Amino acid sequence: MRFHTDKEKILIVDFGSQVTKLIARRVRELGVYSEVITPLGIKNLKNFKSISGIILSGGPSSVTKTNFQSIPKEILLKKIPILGICYGLQLISKLYGGIIKSSKKRREFGRAFIFKKKQSLLTKKFFKSKLSVWMSHEDAVVKLPKNFSAVAYTKDSKLTIIENKKKKIYGVQFHPEVTHTDNGKQIFKNFLFSICKIKKNWNVAHQKKRLIEETKKKVERNKVICALSGGVDSSVVALLINKAIKRNLICVMVDTGLMRKNEFKYTYRIFKDKYKLNVKLIKASNIFLKKLKNISNPEKKRKIIGNLFIKIFEKEAKKYKNVKFLAQGTLYPDVIESKSFTGSKTSKIKSHHNVGGLPKKMNLELIEPLREFFKDEVRVLGKSLGLSKNISQRHPFPGPGLAIRIVGEITTKKIKILQEADQIYINELNKSNLYNKIWQAYAALLPIKTVGVMGDSRTYEYTCLIRAVTSEDGMTADYYNFPKDFLDKISNKIINNVKGINRVVYDISSKPPSTIELE
Ligand code: XMP
């Protein structure tokens, strides 16, 4: 289901930068609707009527090579304001006849100080003394295209901000979307409101009404089956659709046996008793475990789980008359992440089961009302639907559950061990008031057994990995810097209380190059 709007929007062309989504976030934070599109998508786009501005993202391509990612030249004739970021600036320069060179001398990575050369609409209220911006480029524009001028420079690059004021085309070599760039938001503010002259049109709570109306219209008198996991996303979807169609919504909770300890029972009761949803509980842990037996390949695990979920829903749907739709809590980052921007297989990192792992032939039509939203926006939406903080502030939990946190083969024993360790960890985070400072935290079980000594006896048991990250939307993440005391406490508690674990390690990797989950 496309909850599409024909309101004015900013298009962001994704050339494959790791941080493209942050551009979309920044634009939305300023109250403007934005959509990310692939270079192929914009090539095929017929209607530019509702597009108030285009932002070209960064990316790994190089305009110094023969085969570089681009946009059709006709777009430049449409008089739509354009902002190029990093690769985007180089592409604009190339398309207008500038010269770009790959040069070790001019490359900049990390922080750089930026200085004003002349006034520009793009940099209104942007400059201040000692302003630093975030750079990540090897290619650089060495000769400006005709009718372009330089607005700002750094020590190593003369053309850090460029403009063609008449054509409303701008380029910045740095990344204003990342928080490491001082005052980066001001660049977007100026581009949106002073250059594109777009009006504020995006407010999460106001979307609620639209989503409810659109769901009503789409579903008519049919029934919707909703995969409810108890996580923030599916809970918000269920409450939203319930507001639209009430008893025609059947929420299905599948007990895969791969959830956190006690979480399933707790969530089931809340949805049934507090929110009065029509919830059906399906106990399927045996079948999940059977299908996952001896499987250690992460992608296979994901595919098996994704396929089983869908089969169960389809089977369930057949028990009712007129079930036509399957509702899912797919978010905007899932949508972008599952779309390889070049179409190449290598850029797909994981099959998130609510998107990439779906079988090709599905008998139910999808309803995904949160396809346009980021996680924090979903939390706001949840609040406006009366979702309790307990659920709306929960850390994300992946669809495949503990299956991707037990590295290697999954057994009932390993699940039990991990559930115990995870519960201790999360409880301690809550007790120490750390839970809400962390974007996501979990315990995982590594398939490594090592020797330990407890009392006077030798042990030979598993290793528990604990992970805690800070993040904006799961696209990039940093490990959380716990005080040593907390790590000591966790390690002791887990080893002393969980039979089967004799070693605890803390994961200090960031994303990228690692990912948040282990598989
Ligand atoms: P990664 O491991 O890709 O995770 O850095 C980013 C975020 O996505 C969550 N995740 C999933 N969520 N189904 C989901 O609903 C999945 O298959 C899945 N895999 C990862 C992960 O927990 C983190 O928040």
Describe this structure in words.
By secondary structure, the chain is α/β, with parallel strands linked by helices. The chain has three domains: 9-195, 3-Layer(aba) Sandwich (Rossmann fold), CATH 3.40.50; 205-392, 3-Layer(aba) Sandwich (Rossmann fold); 405-506, GMP Synthetase, Chain A, domain 3 (2-Layer Sandwich), CATH 3.30.300. The protein has 14 helices and 21 strands. The strands form five sheets. Strands 2-1-3-4-12-11-10-7 form an eight-stranded mixed β-sheet. Helix 5 (204-219) crosses helix 11. The longest helix has 20 residues, at 298-317. The model is unreliable at 340-347 and 355-359 (pLDDT under 50).
Cα end-to-end separation: 29 Å
List of distinct ligands in this structure: xanthosine-5'-monophosphate
DSSP helical segment count: 14
CATH architecture of the largest domain: 3-Layer(aba) Sandwich
Q: Work out the number of β strands.
A: 21
Largest sheet: 8 strands, mixed
Quote the beta fraction.
Answer: 15-25%
